Amino acid sequence: MRLPVSLSGTAVHPVTGLLPAWMDPNVFLRDPSVSPWLLLVVCAFLFIETGLLVGFFLPGDSLLFTAGLLVATGTVNLSIAVLAGAAFAAAFAGDQTGYLIGHKAGPAVFNKPQSRLFRQEYVERAHTFFQRYGRRSVILARFVPIVRTFIPVVAGVARMQHRTFIAFNAVGALAWGIGVTLLGFWLGQYEWIGRNIDLIFILIVLISVAPIGVELLKARRTGTAAD
């Protein structure tokens, strides 16, 4: 059974969670003043993840999916059209920025010292991905964590034709930025999802931070082995 949805893209009837109020996203996210800030945070995270090398650890997939889910259940007072459009714009602008960084700086942009977060392995993974899929990698990498951060820069370093990159970037931003958001919105209309949004919210957070923990653990083990 689906929850009734208004023309603005939000559920008509509020849903209640099973967790205490201080853990329930319905409590603090339903405030209308929170919605603009949430939209800004989503856009900022998407831009940083796709446009700046420092954002490779951000969980863009989970963020898009969760945002769409929260809009569908009425937890966030936002139009799905506004959210999806903003996600597309942020994802597109992020990749464009990454491309320009790679195009201007050249290979030197990757000459960074090894650290607990930045590893040359990430660059090599993105370079291999780009060599394998060519122009299509700009679209496909959107759905591959870490790789999606480095692919635009690699494309810029490789001097991929700018007009071609713009076209593939637009398709990738559409498929990822809008597609994943609408997937969360679609699933969020089902009653079971809406009634357990608090538990699902926490589960998504745990899934989102798990890869970061794994990468940090791998980096720690590598550092220990080197010592």
Quote the distance from N terminus to C terminus: 57 Å
The shape is globular
Question: Taking all residues together, what is the mean pLDDT?
Answer: 78
Oligomer: single chain
State the helix count: 10
Question: How would you describe what is shown here?
Answer:
The protein has helices spanning 25-29, 34-51, 60-72, 80-105, 120-133, 137-140, 147-157, 162-187, 191-195, 197-226. The termini are far apart. The protein has one domain. It is built from 10 helices and no strands. The protein has 227 residues and is mainly alpha-helical.
Mind sketching the topology for me?
Layout: H1 25-29, H2 34-51, H3 60-72, H4 80-105, H5 120-133, H6 137-140, H7 147-157, H8 162-187, H9 191-195, H10 197-226
Helix pairs in contact: 2-3, 2-4, 3-4, 3-8, 3-10, 4-7, 4-8, 5-7
Summarize the structure.
This protein has 227 residues and is mainly α. It has ten helices and no strands.
